[in-house]
Amino acid sequence: MAAKKFDRSSLEQLLSKRFFYTPAFSIYGGVAGLYDYGPTGCALQANILNTWRNHFVLEEDMLELDCTIMTPAEVLKTSGHVEKFADWMCKDPKTGEIFRADHLVEGVLEGRLEGDKLARSEPIAAEAACPEGAKKKKEKKKKGAVVAVKLEDSVKAEYEHILAQIDNYSGPELGELMKKYDIKSPETGNDLTEPVEFNLMFESSIGPTGQLKGYLRPETAQGQFLNFKRLLEFNNDRMPFASAQIGKSFRNEISPRSGLLRVREFTMAEIEHYVDPLSKKHARFAEVKDQVVRLLPASVQLEGRTELSEITIGEAVEKKIVDNETLGYFLVRIYLFLTKIGINPERLRFRQHMSNEMAHYACDCWDAEIETSYGWIECVGCADRSAYDLTVHSVKTKEKLVVREALPEPRVIEKLQVEINKKVFGSKLKRGAKPVEEYLTALDEAAAQKLKDDMAANGGKINVTGTDGNEYEVTSEMVSVEKVTIKEHVREYTPNVIEPSFGIGRIMYSLMEHAYWTREGDEQRSVLSFPIGVAPFKCLVLPISNQAEFQKPLQNLTSNLRRLGISSKIDDSSASIGRRYARNDELGTPYAITVDFQTVADGTVTLRERDTTKQIREKVEVILELVNQLVAEKITWEQVLEKHQVFVQQEVAN
Amino acid sequence: MAAKKFDRSSLEQLLSKRFFYTPAFSIYGGVAGLYDYGPTGCALQANILNTWRNHFVLEEDMLELDCTIMTPAEVLKTSGHVEKFADWMCKDPKTGEIFRADHLVEGVLEGRLEGDKLARSEPIAAEAACPEGAKKKKEKKKKGAVVAVKLEDSVKAEYEHILAQIDNYSGPELGELMKKYDIKSPETGNDLTEPVEFNLMFESSIGPTGQLKGYLRPETAQGQFLNFKRLLEFNNDRMPFASAQIGKSFRNEISPRSGLLRVREFTMAEIEHYVDPLSKKHARFAEVKDQVVRLLPASVQLEGRTELSEITIGEAVEKKIVDNETLGYFLVRIYLFLTKIGINPERLRFRQHMSNEMAHYACDCWDAEIETSYGWIECVGCADRSAYDLTVHSVKTKEKLVVREALPEPRVIEKLQVEINKKVFGSKLKRGAKPVEEYLTALDEAAAQKLKDDMAANGGKINVTGTDGNEYEVTSEMVSVEKVTIKEHVREYTPNVIEPSFGIGRIMYSLMEHAYWTREGDEQRSVLSFPIGVAPFKCLVLPISNQAEFQKPLQNLTSNLRRLGISSKIDDSSASIGRRYARNDELGTPYAITVDFQTVADGTVTLRERDTTKQIREKVEVILELVNQLVAEKITWEQVLEKHQVFVQQEVAN
């Protein structure tokens, strides 16, 4: 319902006027993709993060970290980000303008489909189908995109099929699509260059010599992986467990657009949940298994379709639509978090990544996508990173990043082992003894077998390369390869990682769209219906007019609210009471307490609720206690109205 | 007292073992000046920031912002940081090693004074005077610094005089000191290069073309200044008011040392309080005026002395030791914040900056310095930035960053004004009309007078340069300069800014030193006595041993604590109860609830307090309510002990 009536430009005006956010450096002309949060946005964000911390970190005893943003290049080379964390861009060589290739193809094809729709229908019907009506069409026309041209039915179907899997194309494939469908620079009509990769990390250098290259982290995850050993120790070596981190990350987007949805600097909240790869069961799965979720699996998308399956998570895991219990558990926890802060569950889905769009470190990934006026937006990723990160860092640094678990009973195994005859070995190889021993002890089963075979075939001798890179001759006098029986008391494994990763700015913007509506019959009166837990301010305090005698009860009220830990705001400006209530509704403040002449006479005040605009009138002490319980979510406004008579406020001209 | 017995390496071991913090990227060999906070450090930091937000932002209705870290170069050129935000460095040209010049001079002279002390005293006395005893000496000897050489009395006095004002030397002056006192590269003895400036900002570039240069912000202040106009609007145009911001800032330190005290990436909390330059009085000054503070004014330091004056802030402002009420008010608020979170007031002083050490934007500055084993450390700066920042940004962007205040009654002033005869002006100058008008209307009083005089002297005509850079002839027919009487209804001014700026990492480290002690008679038992408000965990929950029957009461306890919003931690490891209490003391957790066999029998548990190690035993419900009130700081442990009998725990071997 909200979606139908939604007017984005009105919302944006409201958000700017009430200082939720603003383009950063605007007095300097601004920089695309950088935004500042004002007092309201900042409070909303803090409340969302606080809810997140309670819902995830405290509820499940996660180990929270605060790691650095500046990261040496070596770490991100190992993690694969230097090579693979890139988007495809192409350039209009005549103007120098740069486009992100997938967004360009998507925009042009969408524009052509819109033009087709126009051509196929009456003008009026076309306008009704387009939520922003005439205005949007005009904007598009400026860019020369929407022209009423009917497409062949087969072409239309092709476009729709491509768009359903737009995230699945590689750069060269996007280049082919651009050729095949004659996609040019939208404003100039110039030919574009072939897509080339552009790494999305901001680069810098650390220290005064300029020799240590660094990047701003593109995710908060790496700092958590690098601390795995200490985290496991801190957790008394128990598995499974999770670490978590809230902080800024950076992506040097090619051409940021869509406001808060695609920015160059953003707050993330990430969880790395470490599990035994042999069992991804979750101890609390039973608590969530009956929750219904809306899923869009990869297989459906690859068929060019977008219908959602509504299914309990229990069934989804049983049918292997969702791979395992831990992944399923987190999908539900994500669902519960998003709906708790006010996301409309009807406009929330989980979409599985297709193989080509998956990040280089992931083996499976489900995105929580929220529907906004920009379409379905990825707001939370929930990836199975397998043992990828811990393995690559461990190989690179030679630091063991593993779990060691005592086996319930020892395991007896037979295994080929290289035995070294120390005395002969040392005296023959001298300085070479150490590098050769290092080489030999690192051999796995198959390599040891090969060494044995080669040595036998070669008359009991063989040349090997030591860890110092030099070649040495090894003889059967020095070394033998024997089958030995080993009793293992400990199992050693690299944990797999399930990673729910939250883009806080995207969630916040989507929430603002979902919370926004206008009162019937009065287009000017916009409301942001945030749940009380995340609303920037819980309570407005205002005098009905500017009389000096209201000052004392006002101060009393605010100091009492502060004592109760309830964030409030005074509005004693000279605007009419109606205008100030309206302003309050635009800030999303759920309650307003008004001091008037009767307050001075009998110590009562009125309490107004934002969504119903209904009011009650009681003694100050009673109202304070009610507000306290409403904020703590111990009672609801409906319950308050059952017990207290609705009061009809007489507005006083000022 | 704590200072005397303090053993830094034991504290550092504890902080590492309990994962308060750790060098970042340590499995990659680490990067100097970058640290990660573990779960305990992260919780401690979050609690400090939460206290800060309540103490400053909520208490005084400050407008909190969250601005971007990435900042275009133009902004930081205007603010002066590109030119002036630098330290002096010199280089050992043979080894390539780089030193920060002031730290080098300071270190060498301190080393020589220490050598002198050694030479003047008996070895045993010398050791007692050096808090870390033999170990420290040995370390220093490795670097070849401390050699027992007696200095002449006059040289010793010179060194002490220099060290008292070490922050006041420019680069060339440091170069002269190095020559005069023969200061070389400490380890190699090589000559060093002359000090050169090194800018401390991390550089990067924004966007795919690489053409937009950016820096990571060196302070959170600039984002606040750039939003001044919106902030003032949001505050209904009322003055004075403050904005605030908590966030990461970056300084590419030349050679970071001293652990958390000098790092390259750090969390700051900054307040920008905007005041009328004509009145820096503060409405709540009366509330703080009797607070005694310990001050070290610039004049005292310039005499080479370091004695503190203990004085009420009221008297300090009256005597102009502290410039104005607003500055004085914030010094006390800073004092109250720091002591609330656990900083020892005996080891806290306010030191005024000397003119050369002041940041380029400041006209006065007092640092809150905390005494640690590294000496007195600047932890909070409280600067008067005057109208510097708002003025430079306004001049650069032509955006007015001013306050407009209705005057109580209009002010009549006479003023020279350039009057343009539009008709003649336009027809004569044509395309030049606009640039010439822009030039003329921007003239100030003196320039207008000069124009009038020059035109009269020149027969009624004159050449001027328009804003387009071209020259035009202007005649008295087109332009006249007249004295006019103007009635001003509005006063327009650029506010001054008082800026309390908190280095959270430094405060946290100092707090950990102040909170640290070891129990009498048992050197192994270290304690971190954090106030309950900032302690990472409020309550430990533990079973006396590993019996299965303790599981249920344990779970009951933790879920009840969670419901009360009290952050707790379970320790059901197999270590003895004594060891687990000791571990708890090292985490700084104020209380521990223990489940034992009697719990199963009669529903009672014990409650142990960290600092006294005393315990009481009561029913679970009673203990939970006590803990709840202790955490809310409604009662003290002393009050609990008055009402409840001390219980003597029988330790059970495991």
Automatic annotation (TrEMBL), chains A, B:
PROSITE patterns noted in UniProt: AA_TRNA_LIGASE_II (PS50862)
Gene3D superfamilies: 3.30.40.230, 3.30.720.200, Anticodon-binding domain (3.40.50.800), Bira Bifunctional Protein, Domain 2 (3.30.930.10)
One Pfam family recorded for the sequence: HGTP_anticodon
Role this protein plays: Catalyzes the ATP-dependent ligation of glycine to the 3'-end of its cognate tRNA, via the formation of an aminoacyl-adenylate intermediate (Gly-AMP). Also produces diadenosine tetraphosphate (Ap4A), a universal pleiotropic signaling molecule needed for cell regulation pathways, by direct condensation of 2 ATPs. Thereby, may play a special role in Ap4A homeostasis.
Subcellular location: Cytoplasm
NCBIfam families the record matches: glyS_dimeric, PRK04173.1
Keyword vocabulary terms for this entry: Aminoacyl-tRNA synthetase, ATP-binding, Cytoplasm, Ligase, Nucleotide-binding, Protein biosynthesis, Transferase
Protein name listed in UniProt: glycine--tRNA ligase
GO biological process: mitochondrial glycyl-tRNA aminoacylation
Domain called Aminoacyl-transfer RNA synthetases class-II family profile: residue spans: 173-531
Higher taxonomy: Eukaryota, Fungi, Fungi incertae sedis, Zoopagomycota, Entomophthoromycotina
Gene Ontology CC: one annotated term: mitochondrion
Species for this entry: Basidiobolus meristosporus CBS 931.73
Gene Ontology molecular function terms on file: ATP binding; glycine-tRNA ligase activity; transferase activity
Catalytic activity as recorded in UniProt: 2 ATP + H(+) = P(1),P(4)-bis(5'-adenosyl) tetraphosphate + diphosphate
Family designation: Belongs to the class-II aminoacyl-tRNA synthetase family.
EC number: 6.1.1.14
Subunit structure comment from the entry: Homodimer.
